[in-house]
Write a structure and sequence with these properties.
8-stranded mixed β-sheet; alpha+beta; 2 domains
Length: 245
């Protein structure tokens, strides 16, 4: 039985164009660091302003209960204000460093994919399909139960015997739907991914069409929907309870 077959192959013309188009929409590294510098300045100004407001309120509270003056015109101000400047700067720099660490430099990764001229193709056996339809606009997302093994692992997969893959059918929410463009889940799927950026370039269904597809209404608000082209770490039997409550 087919479980998983993952290979690196030469990028096609269409896949190359996809990555090139994506690259054109991304900020170059210089702009990313410029944004980081601007974020640092904004964080510093707002942090310092917040501290000054807190300082002012604290001075009023202290003055109401004692004769001690810790306000802006007091002798303590020459120590308090420089300390506030330093603390606000430390907070701003740490916040920006955290943002840089957590936000991927996708531009560099996509350029690496284009330079390597390769894509990763991983094939899976589809064991089950659940379809969730958004009531208002009719958009559809599929949850696929895929059978794999843990021998051929990758950085974007989880080592489990069965994994749940989320795929959005973007054509299903168009005003005028062309039935030929809708996803047609079959018993095998090949996921084409750019190795460095991990961008999914295509999902190709092959084999026998699946007839036993369970349909549910997608009742959760959009911010709680699973991410497209992602692995879902949930119980297969409980999906309808989670997304169609």
């Amino acid at each position: 039985m087919l479980t998983q077959n993952k290979t690196l192959q030469k990028i096609s013309t269409i896949e190359h164009k996809q990555l090139t188009d994506i690259l054109l929409t991304l900020p170059v590294p210089q702009k990313r660091y410029l944004k980081a510098a601007l974020n640092t300045a904004v964080f510093w100004v707002f942090s310092l302003a917040a501290f000054c407001i807190l300082w002012f309120i604290s001075s009023l509270l202290v003055a109401s209960f004692s004769t001690l003056d810790i306000g802006i015109s007091s002798q303590y101000a020459i120590f308090i204000f420089p300390t506030a400047i330093v603390l606000a700067a430390i907070f701003a720099i740490n916040s920006t460093r955290k943002w840089l660490a957590e936000s991927d430099n996708l531009y560099t990764l996509v350029k690496a994919d284009l330079k390597a001229q390769q894509v990763c193709k991983a094939s899976f056996k589809v064991m089950g399909v659940k379809c969730f339809k958004e009531p208002e606009h009719g958009g559809v997302l599929y949850c696929l139960l895929l059978q794999t093994n843990s021998v051929t692992g990758s950085s974007d997969t989880q080592c489990k015997a069965n994994m749940i893959r989320v795929i959005y059918d973007y054509q299903s929410q168009q005003a005028k739907i062309d039935p030929t463009t809708l996803l047609k889940p079959s018993d095998n799927i090949t996921i084409i991914t750019a190795p460095q950026s991990l961008l999914v370039l295509d999902n190709i269904f092959e084999g026998e069409r699946l007839a036993d597809i369970k349909h549910f209404a997608l009742t959760l608000p959009p911010e709680k929907w699973p991410k497209p082209d992602s692995w879902l770490d949930e119980d297969w039997q409980e999906l309808e309870n989670s997304y169609s409550a």
